Amino acid sequence: MGVNSKTVCQINLVVNNLDQLLANYRKAFPDLAVKIFNLPKPDAVPAFTDGKQGDYSDCRLAVLEFENLVLEITEPGASDSPWKRWLDAHGPGVEHIGFKISEADKDETFKTLEGCGSKLYHAGFYPGGTYSFVDGFESFGFDFNIKWDADNSERIAHWKTHPQETLSKI
User: What pTM was estimated for this model as a whole?
Assistant: First the structure.
């Protein structure tokens, strides 16, 4: 079946200096709104790397919404995070490309990508959706961000009262 998506919804760049890069985007796209914020704390958006919950709130993110896709630019903080690992390993550039799928297709998607040598390593749970990073650098030249709509309210509530628990299944 493969990856059942024809929708590229996002491109993420990882950079050393967000403010410096945004100065150029603002010159090139002066009418484009830019939202800048730190990633949420794990009590609001639990996220796991290699199965263990992390706090990525020292990462700064800029979101630029074009009509056909979202450009995210991430400046990792000092703490361990998928974005810091990427920057340390590969330098600045395209970290992931986001693909929107249906929740029903997620198992087949991960199986297909694993068959291409790409492994799921990070997942985050917003109240209305799940995102997951698949290491595709060696096989595709970038990581995947596989995204789907899901009601994660119960999961988030559970992790708020059991923060020591790790991710067992996405």
Answer: 0.93
